């Protein structure tokens, strides 16, 4: 049996694919911003907050990291809906993905914070910097610089994993391809095309993070060595 | 001349361990005091108490007009008046030399970038590292990093500088360049208290030598006491140091 | 709460365990080959392995599932069962990550040990088997146990494209009938947690022990 590949039939839907790419990228961007804010805040609490707050953060981190994203999405998105709260599906997906990536971010940033030497804090204290100033300029900034490579990889994985929210009805790249599937029946070709696009997106997101890193961390730009 | 540093019967314990057992001494404005003594005698602890990195449990301590025993002490203003430099330079590795120096003037004193930069230019010249302004700490030698750490403290225009064995981590060649900077500071009239193992340096620049032993001031006087110690313990300590 | 539903969840849990074990078995074998290929002195082989890793790490698992599900029938084979397709996809996916983890472990040991073993006059493969691998195995265990957690979590994706009826699939079916998402997805999450959390803890404990031993 010979199979006639028909990629043209799939590629004819390029406006739809573009729309999906755009949604995937937007979703990734929002979750990156919120995820870093959430994860950064949790990491600060986890390393310097009161005991009860550390506990809550640990619980959150452990629970998210030891359950599948898919079940988290079902739980949150269907759960919110079952309470009678009507959220646009893209908002729900952003919440679910942010809650997920926030936990991973917390762990990564926490490791960065803990790698900052105590002498650094003492130096900042002696210079008269306040607690907040010390956190911002002497702890968080170098911690982020140190864990930036790990963070970037995690967020590339987030972009790829965002395909999972198609299962709750988000028409991002993967979800929108279901429509093409039902109209063309070119299942295999669709997955090949999707694979190619996702590979491209992974390179794009990785490149984006690399550029952002150069902009944010002048030391790395000038010396090129890890902190 | 009024004392700028006044310790009276200062006591400090870590848990069960009493480290300072009633330390009393004074340092006047413009004076250089050298604290010497065996390892574990409480020199660092005394110094750290003066910048309130540790709190004291007994006695009183007056530093640049701040009574350190007060609970509502204005820490920000104390740390403006007091600069401290440690054996480990603790420069911020993600900032350039200039940024290291300008951080506190901008954050604590709320200076504008330009004003802070002027101060940075002044203090970096004092430590002789003008050409290194845009380097990162890892690009500097240990001696250069320590000089930057001194400059960073000076940028806050302190009234009192504390040094805790600032040359202990350095090779002999690099030690010299840091000591020269400190000597110049002393000549410029800065009030300084330094914990040091460099007896020759103490003899040369110190107006006052404080020999600590077992959490107390055992002997104190002008640098002459290093040549003619009154107590046998100091005599032994000086002899021992000379061997090394 | 209905006992039939709980039974269905437990069946799903069993299916999850089966798929995880199959994945670890085949993914482990394939991952070992990938790791060896990656450190091969043959340029083409090591570049090939690197490209393979790169591609697998740049694809969503969902897409890989689709390719493995629909691909074989195009090549003229019968279409795969959901379990086979899911195992196939997860094996490809895991082999890339495990290969990369193990390559790191082998190289961490190899650098200092290589020359010592060279002095003994062993061939490259002998050195690898007698000296390098036993030591690499030791440091490979904590991250490998950690990756088991990823495998278990990733099996949930098999419920989507290929429709393998594991835990999250059954939970979804139950939710469609009961509309009690917090309850049933909550229980499903707890079941995943019951498997994954001990593995995570174990991985960290092993890691710590190793760090202490190396000091
Ligand atoms: N944070 C602390 N907690 C508990 N004990 C401490 C602490 N800091 C210092 N000590 C103890 O206090 C004593 C005095 O320490 P200190 O560092 O002041 O000595 P030192 O005279 O500076 O010695 P060195 O010459 O070795 O620097 C030591 O026995 C030390 O173990
Ligand atoms: Mg000391």
UniProtKB/TrEMBL annotation, chain A:
Gene Ontology CC entries for this record: ATP-binding cassette (ABC) transporter complex
InterPro entries per record: AA_ABC_transptr_permease_3TM, ArtM/GltK/GlnP/TcyL/YhdX-like, MetI-like, MetI-like_sf
Keyword Oxidoreductase listed: no
GO molecular function ontology, one term from the record: transmembrane transporter activity
CDD domains in the cross-refs: TM_PBP2
Record-annotated membrane-spanning stretches: 20-45, 147-170, 190-217
Protein name (database record): Amino acid ABC transporter permease
Naturally occurring in which organism (per UniProt): Bradyrhizobium zhengyangense
UniProtKB/TrEMBL annotation, chain B:
Occurrences of domain ABC transporter (ranges): 5-239
Keyword set includes Transmembrane: no
Domain of life: Bacteria
Entries under Pfam families matching the protein: ABC_tran
CDD domains in UniProt: ABC_HisP_GlnQ (cd03262)
Membrane topology (UniProt): Peripheral membrane protein
GO CC annotation: plasma membrane
Subcellular location: Cell membrane
Official protein name in the record: Amino acid ABC transporter ATP-binding protein
TrEMBL record, chain C:
Family in the record: Belongs to the binding-protein-dependent transport system permease family. HisMQ subfamily.
Membrane topology: Multi-pass membrane protein
Source domain of life: Bacteria
Subcellular location: Cell inner membrane; Cell membrane
Domain (ABC transmembrane type-1): residue spans on this chain: 13-203
Gene Ontology molecular-function annotations: transmembrane transporter activity
The protein's name: Amino acid ABC transporter permease
Claim: Zinc-finger is one of the keywords in the record: no
GO CC field: ATP-binding cassette (ABC) transporter complex
């Amino acid at each position: 049996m010979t199979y006639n590949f028909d990629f043209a039939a799939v590629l004819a839907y390029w406006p739809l694919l573009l729309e999906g790419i755009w949604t995937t990228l937007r979703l990734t961007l929002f979750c990156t911003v919120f995820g870093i804010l959430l994860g950064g805040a949790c990491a600060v609490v986890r390393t310097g907050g009161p005991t009860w707050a550390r506990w809550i953060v640990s619980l959150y981190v452990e629970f998210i990291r030891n359950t599948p994203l898919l079940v988290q999405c079902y739980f949150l998105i269907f759960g919110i809906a079952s309470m009678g709260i009507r959220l646009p599906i893209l908002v729900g997906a952003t919440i679910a993905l942010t809650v997920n990536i926030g936990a991973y971010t917390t762990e990564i940033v926490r490791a960065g914070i803990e790698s900052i030497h105590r002498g650094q804090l003492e130096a900042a204290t002696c210079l008269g910097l306040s607690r907040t100033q010390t956190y911002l300029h002497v702890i968080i900034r170098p911690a982020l610089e140190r864990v930036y490579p790990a963070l970037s990889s995690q967020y590339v994985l987030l972009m790829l994993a965002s395909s999972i929210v198609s299962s709750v009805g988000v028409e991002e790249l993967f979800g929108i391809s279901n429509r093409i599937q039902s109209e063309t029946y070119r299942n295999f070709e669709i997955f090949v095309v999707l694979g190619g696009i996702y590979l491209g997106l992974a390179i794009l997101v990785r490149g984006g993070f690399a550029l952002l890193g150069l902009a944010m961390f002048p030391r790395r730009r000038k010396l090129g060595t890890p902190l | 001349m009024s004392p700028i540093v006044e310790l009276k019967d200062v006591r400090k314990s870590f848990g069960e361990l009493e480290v300072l057992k009633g330390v009393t001494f004074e340092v006047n404005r413009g004076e250089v005091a050298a604290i010497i003594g065996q390892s574990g005698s409480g020199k660092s602890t005394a110094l750290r108490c003066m910048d309130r990195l540790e709190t004291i449990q007994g006695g009183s301590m007056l530093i640049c007009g701040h009574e350190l025993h007060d609970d509502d002490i204005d820490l920000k203003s104390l740390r403006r008046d007091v600069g401290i430099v440690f054996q480990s330079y603790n420069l911020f590795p993600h900032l350039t030399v200039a940024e290291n120096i300008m951080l506190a003037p901008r954050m604590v004193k709320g200076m504008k970038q330009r004003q802070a930069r002027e101060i940075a230019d002044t203090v970096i010249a004092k430590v002789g590292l003008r050409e290194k302004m845009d380097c990162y700490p890892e690009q500097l030698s240990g001696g250069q990093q320590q000089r930057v750490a001194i400059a960073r403290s000076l940028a806050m225009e302190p009234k009192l500088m504390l040094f805790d064995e600032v040359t202990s981590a350095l090779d002999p060649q690099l030690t010299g360049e840091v000591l020269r900077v400190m000597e110049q500071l002393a000549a410029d009239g800065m009030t300084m208290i330094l914990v040091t193992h460099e007896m020759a340096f103490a003899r040369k620049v110190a107006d006052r030598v404080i020999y600590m032993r077992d959490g107390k001031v055992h002997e104190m006087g002008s640098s002459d006491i290093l040549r003619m110690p009154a107590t046998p313990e100091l005599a032994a300590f000086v002899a021992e140091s000379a061997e090394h | 709460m209905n006992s039939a539903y709980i039974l269905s969840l437990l069946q799903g849990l069993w299916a999850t365990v089966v798929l995880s074990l199959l994945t670890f078995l085949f993914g482990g074998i394939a991952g070992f080959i990938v790791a060896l290929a990656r450190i091969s002195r043959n340029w083409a082989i090591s570049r090939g392995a690197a490209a393979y890793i790169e591609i697998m790490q740049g694809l969503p698992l969902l897409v890989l599932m689709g390719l493995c599900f629909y691909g074989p029938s195009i090549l003229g084979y019968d279409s795969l069962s959901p379990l086979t397709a899911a195992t196939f996809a997860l094996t490809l996916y895991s082999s890339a990550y495990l290969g990369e983890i193990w390559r790191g472990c082998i190289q961490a040991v190899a650098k200092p040990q290589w020359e010592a073993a060279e002095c003994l006059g062993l061939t490259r493969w002998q050195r690898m088997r007698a000296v390098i691998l036993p030591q690499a195995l030791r440091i490979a265990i904590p991250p490998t146990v950690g990756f088991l957690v990823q495998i278990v979590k990733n099996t949930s994706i098999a419920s989507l494209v290929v429709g393998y009826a594991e835990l999250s699939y059954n939970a979804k079916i139950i939710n469609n009938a009961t509309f009690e998402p917090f309850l049933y997805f909550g229980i499903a999450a707890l079941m995943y947690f019951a498997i994954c959390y001990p593995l995570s803890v174990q991985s960290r404990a092993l890691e710590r022990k190793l760090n202490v031993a190396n000091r």
